[in-house]
């Protein structure tokens, strides 16, 4: 059986005989090619003529559609779940701001409140 479904960019399809799921990631009608990416991440380029000979059907995106696109974090899926609050984002700026205002370590101390090594002039600087 051949497909009557046109390739649509970012749509999902399934091979009826193999059960493999894939999505169209590029479509070049001028060259007559379709790039598809299987759920396992493999990418394949096929001709438009070959496309219409495939035994496939359009499907809804899989529940875990992130398989082929290497989304590692749940936040990358577009959810509002985050464990970072707004104060965490401002913290580095507050550190820089306070150092510019002179709230840094005392003269002669390093960042940990310990003494700095005494510098001695070079022999040529005496």
TrEMBL record:
<protein>
    <submittedName>
        <fullName>Uncharacterized protein</fullName>
    </submittedName>
</protein>
<feature type="compositionally biased region" description="Basic and acidic residues">
    <location>
        <begin position="113"/>
        <end position="126"/>
    </location>
</feature>
<feature type="region of interest" description="Disordered">
    <location>
        <begin position="80"/>
        <end position="126"/>
    </location>
</feature>
<dbReference type="Pfam" id="PF20549">
    <property type="entry name" value="DUF6763"/>
</dbReference>
<dbReference type="InterPro" id="IPR046651">
    <property type="entry name" value="DUF6763"/>
</dbReference>
């Amino acid at each position: 059986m051949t497909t009557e479904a046109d390739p649509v960019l970012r749509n999902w399809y399934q091979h009826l005989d193999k059960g493999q799921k894939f999505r169209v990631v590029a479509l070049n009608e001028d060259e007559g090619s379709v790039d598809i990416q299987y759920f396992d991440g493999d990418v394949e380029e096929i001709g438009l003529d070959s496309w219409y000979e495939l035994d496939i059907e359009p499907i809804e995106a899989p529940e875990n559609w992130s398989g082929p696109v290497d989304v590692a974090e749940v936040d990358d899926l577009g959810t509002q779940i985050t464990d970072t609050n707004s104060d965490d984002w401002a913290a580095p700026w507050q550190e820089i701001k306070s150092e510019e205002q002179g709230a840094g370590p005392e003269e002669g101390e390093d960042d940990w409140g310990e003494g700095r090594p005494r510098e001695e002039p070079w022999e040529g600087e005496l």
